[in-house]
Amino acid sequence: MSVGFQELAAAPPPMTSRLEGELLEISMGPQHPSTHGVFRMNVALEGEIVRKLKPVFGYLHRNHEKIGENTSYLGSMPYTDRLDYFCSMTNNWAYALSVEKLAGIEVPERAEYLRVILAELTRLQNHASLLGFLLSDMGAWGTPLMYAFREREKILDLFESLSGSRMMCDFMRFGGCRVDASEEWLGRARKIAEAFPKFLDEFEQLILSNEIVIMRTQHVGKLSAELAINAGITGPMLRASGVNYDIRKVDGYGIYPRFKFRVPLGDHGDCYDRLMMRSLEMRESLAILKQAFAEIPAGPITNPKVKIRAFKPPVGEAYGRIEGPKGELGFYLISDGSASPYRYRVRPPSFINLTILEDLCLGHTVADVMVILGSIDIVMGEVDR
Amino acid sequence: MESLEEIKARAEAVVPDAKIEIVLNPGPANQPSLLLEALSALRVARFLHDDPALRLDFCSNATGVDWLDRKVKTTRKVKKLVEGEEKEVDETTEESVPGYLEAVYHLYSMSHKHGPVIIRSRTVNRADDVHLPSLTPVWRSAEMQEREIFDLYGIHFDGHPDLRRILMWDEFVDHPMRKDYVEPDDYEYEPTPHDEVLERAKEHYPARPELEQLTPRE
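Output (structure tokens, whole complex):
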């Protein structure tokens, strides 16, 4: 189906209607369910084919960075939850990691394990709900999303019982975590992780081998490895184009070098690869979780040397980054020795992954734009900041 | 990966008119950076991207920093005649350093898996000469981020394909991330204003006598 459209795009047929030779400019969004928030695209169409696409940002802009520069270091921690509100745990970790780099703080063993467990649980629920949303965008309205949300809900329950909040966890602290996980909690988490492959098997069988899904996603929105690298694409989207770059492996931050896991790679860089990538990454996350549950040691969860109040890191700057579920999430901090950062910068993965949206959509139909946008995996809280 | 000094020496050999300075980073993060001149920044960036040993093909983060005009106090020990005796006296001189806007890029290599190499370039001042070369021709990932710097800091990137505001609306005039940004006085009507809102209400509606009867809450 989509191959036919590509050929159409390469050589559009002569038109006989009154709109001959004219482009129709329409505004997709901001209030459209498949734009994943308030995001707008100015699209110029020739019939059904996209000839031009300009994304419009800023509907959710609240100058997160300015607010971060006017509060204390710790004061920004709960606010990072609101960046990518699906993955507050990884946002916390990225920020804590940068501040730990800036101030040279060590993290105790048990806290590192807890961080890995929570980050991988976050990846599971993010990828699961992304698959649900993407299928919703493609017209499988409701049912797959509810299947995915059923699994996500279990993980959010875990987050709630640990941190007191389902989505706005505010869990990490500089040099550790806020509260310790009980044995009972770890047992529950292990059970949920053990039951997860069943959902994945079912989901893959039902959805990912579905003929309509394959028709809608294969050969749609192809991204070459060269363009992906040059445009700074990160995360599952980059690896779907076949570039082996996972910051968990490259930087080996935290205690990731201790775990055995594979980095799934795509072949074609189309929407189907991006979709499959999420499914495969969930399986690797489960492998990491299994090892982490088996190895987690007892011990303190915070570094007692770190001052919580009146925390003032030494003068200097640091850039810390982690492999978030959506890509490279980085924080760039400049300290002037005072209690609030001189510069607080968030490097949001989904914002930079949108750089090549136009390149991916050109020559495809309007309906494919939804699929391509859905496969990028954006959250506007992070894009607009 | 080679040290920053080696990268600097090699870049200066390839781009002869480039003047590169190493900016030290005193903190524990140990992330020093290369300060590039605006004139040669693009050519040095291309060298960093193309050089087979470096291959910094991935520009992860591009951002702006605003440095205000500041006064630097330097204290030196000076020998002086005090009451007929020669003594060492501290003499403090104050020097004002003009402010500038800075663009910072964090570069990594996806093919060699090393990094970061941090490069930065500075504008002449903060007011009228705020031009820097755009590095988007080398790294496409800077496209949106340079637009964001232009929007929030007001650095003009020469050679950028599409330099428009990105987060603020097109009609907006100021640059909100600058350190001396003052938010506009957008007063919203309130039926029972108090405290500082009352003060502003009086400014905005001088012809409302009933406001005079309202007193600030204790």
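The first strand of chain A starts at residue 24 and ends at 28.
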